[in-house]
């Protein structure tokens, strides 16, 4: 089976560049943007050899996993572009939910698979990481920002020794191909990218994201720089920052950091 776009993505004008293997779909997308590519175009492979996640952590996709990046060149500020990551999380959650239901129907099993969104950019199955999202942006012309959203999903295998324990669709009993998931993802992206609408629809994206948020209302510890903030995960604000309510009642906005569920002691146990 080959990679292909879903019908909704095709109708919306998306294009596709598929690779048997590649170092990094994000790096390829950025390189193409520097060379004049304006998208919207997907880059996809089932074997990525030099990918990376947040904080330059390696993100290797062995054969059978899904590594994909979408490139769009848009006229928005970097701060607004950053909120596109939440639309990406919703798109991936919707695609995962659909393929898991379809796989369950084919096998005669019961569909009790639930996925959630971990701030700022992970998709979880239970409390295990199933997928990660990396957003990068670079100015390519006046008022033109090349935005690349990389989406890596553990389809057949998951890495070991990660800060958050990882899992794969195969380990969860969802036996599908990366190609099937990718087609659903491109259609879901077209839907939620449309809702986001260059940032004008982030209010609705925020509302939908919070419906799927992992740890909302629970104790969390966020490691940011050399400090740790602990409190209750209250919400995300209009800029996409996590709002944590400390024991003293102070609402602290977090713009970046690694989130751990439970108290600060959970960081050492991770």
From TrEMBL:
Q: Which Pfam families match?
A: BPL_C, BPL_LplA_LipB
Query: Which reaction equations make up its catalytic activity?
Result: biotin + L-lysyl-[protein] + ATP = N(6)-biotinyl-L-lysyl-[protein] + AMP + diphosphate + H(+)
Q: Which organism is it from?
A: Bradyrhizobium lablabi
Question: Which intervals hold domain BPL/LPL catalytic?
Answer: 1-197
User: What are the record's GO terms for cellular component?
Assistant: cytoplasm
Q: Does the keyword ATP-binding apply?
A: yes
Enzyme class label: ligase
State which Enzyme Commission number(s) the record gives: 6.3.4.15
Family matches, as InterPro entries: aa-tRNA-synth_II/BPL/LPL, Biotin_CoA_COase_ligase, BPL_C, BPL_LPL_catalytic, Transcriptional_repressor_C
The protein's name: biotin--[biotin carboxyl-carrier protein] ligase
| CDD domains named in the record | BPL
Entry keyword set: ATP-binding, Biotin, Ligase, Nucleotide-binding
GO molecular function per UniProt: ATP binding; biotin--[biotin carboxyl-carrier protein] ligase activity
């Amino acid at each position: 089976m080959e990679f292909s776009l879903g019908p909704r993505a095709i109708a919306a004008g998306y294009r596709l560049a598929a690779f048997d293997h590649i170092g990094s779909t994000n790096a390829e997308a950025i390189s193409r943007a520097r060379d004049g590519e304006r998208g919207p175009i997907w880059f996809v492979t089932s074997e990525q050899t030099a990918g990376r996640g947040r904080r330059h952590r390696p993100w290797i996709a062995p054969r059978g996993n899904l590594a994909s990046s979408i490139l769009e060149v848009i006229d928005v500020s970097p701060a607004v572009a950053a909120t596109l990551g939440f639309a990406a999380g919703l798109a991936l959650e919707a695609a995962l939910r659909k393929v898991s239901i379809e796989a369950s129907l084919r096998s005669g099993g019961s569909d009790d698979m639930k996925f959630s969104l971990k701030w700022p950019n992970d998709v979880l199955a239970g409390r295990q990481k199933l997928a990660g999202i990396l957003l990068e942006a670079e100015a390519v012309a006046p008022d033109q920002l090349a935005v690349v959203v990389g989406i890596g999903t553990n389809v057949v295998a998951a890495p070991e020794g990660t800060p958050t324990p990882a899992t794969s669709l195969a380990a969860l009993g969802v036996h599908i191909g990366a190609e099937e998931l990718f087609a659903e993802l491109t259609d879901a992206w077209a839907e939620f990218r449309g809702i986001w609408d260059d940032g004008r629809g982030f209010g609705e994206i925020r509302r939908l994201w919070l419906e799927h948020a992992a740890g909302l209302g629970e104790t969390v510890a966020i490691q940011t720089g050399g400090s740790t903030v602990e409190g209750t995960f209250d919400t995300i604000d209009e800029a996409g920052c996590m709002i944590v309510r400390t024991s003293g009642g102070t609402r602290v906005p977090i713009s970046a950091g690694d989130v751990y569920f439970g108290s600060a002691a959970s960081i050492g146990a991770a």
